[in-house]
Structure formats: structure tokens, C-alpha cells
Amino acid sequence: MDELKLVRPAPVHMNSAEEFKREFYSCGEQVINGITLLDQMEYDKWLENVERNSSPKTIRKDWGVADTFFTVRKSDGRIIGTVDVIHNLDNEFLSKYGGHIGYAVRPSKRRKGYATQILKMAPQHAKSIGLSRVMLGCYSDNLASIKTEFYKKQRFEIASLTMRCKL
Q1: Could you tell me if residue 138 is left (phi over 0), alpha (psi between -120 and 50 degrees) or otherwise beta?
Q2: Across the strands, what pairs with 101?
């Protein structure tokens, strides 16, 4: 497994991001978690949305200020996953279901240790922006992660179907 790094989305990533998105669709996954609306927008519009969501002055009223990243393989620059780190949970959806951290790993790269890397980098970033505790949501049908106690191994405690981690 190659090492990953967090990279902020930019116009130069358009083709790679579209290829990343197509992989999910070709595997029958129509929703890409952890990357606010990439699965529902054209790349240029999505990039504008990411920029708006990064500032309290321009954020949508139904969301929270977020730092959005591609998780990119250092060896070749390939997008392996995505992660959003949301600064606060000031709305009902995020506080009940979403959490501070949302992430995804492309289908062909799952079960290779990349999610473990992402769940080390995302809380580190959260700590760097002043958070002392983070929450992430886990769907009840994500049996692979729940059964293997993946989140517990990453220091998240299970609170119903959301995970909390002290930083």
C-alpha cells in the first residue's frame, strides 16, 4: 500500500475526479460519501461549491464550513479517496447523521489500508483547525466496517450509528 496525502481540489484534477466518479458508478454505487455532492454535479460547479463551503461568509445555510480534500497516492498522484472535514455541527442533519468527517475510498482500492490512512489524516487536520473531538457517521448497512471493528481500531467509540473520537 502506498502512502497518501491530502490535496485540495483544483481545476487540474477534473479528469482524475471524473474517472474516480465513474468507478463508483460502474460498481453500481450512485452515492459517493465524504465529498459533498461530487456525485451530483459537474466538476467545475462542484469546485465552486467546495470553495463556497470553505468560508463562513459564503457557506450554504444547510451545511457547515468544510475543508474538502482528495486523498492522493504520493507515488503517482492517483485519487484514491476523498475526505471532508467539517468545522462544526451547527445544523441538525450534521449533528445527528453526518459528523465532522466524511470520507470515501474508490471501490477498487478498498480493503488495502487506505481508509486507515484517511482516518489518521482527517482527525489530524481536524485537530489543526481547533477541534478536540470529532464525530463521523456510519450507515447501519456498512457491515464490513462494523463487523471488523474497523472504527474502534481507529480510536472511534461507537455511539449508536455515529462514531466519536477524542483528538
Answers
A1: beta
A2: 85, 136
Q: How confident is the model at residue 159 (pLDDT cuts 50, 70, 90)?
A: low
State whether residue 155 is helix, strand or coil. Answer: coil
Domain ranges of the chain: 4-130
Judged against a pLDDT cut of 80, whether residue 121 lies above it is answered with yes
* CA–CA separation, 24 and 87 (whole Å): 27
The proportion of the chain whose per-residue pLDDT surpasses 90, expressed as a percent, equals: 54
Question: pLDDT (tens digit, 9 = 90+) per residue, 123-152?
Answer: 999 999 999 888 877 766 766 666 656 667
Which triple of cell numbers denotes residue 53? 463551503
What is the dihedral angle through the alpha carbons of 131, 2, 163, 35, rounded to the nearest 10 degrees? 80
Architecture of domain 4-130: 3-Layer(aba) Sandwich (3.40)
CA distance 10 to 13: 6
Q: What's residue 105's pLDDT?
A: 93
CB 108, CB 36: distance < 8 Å: no
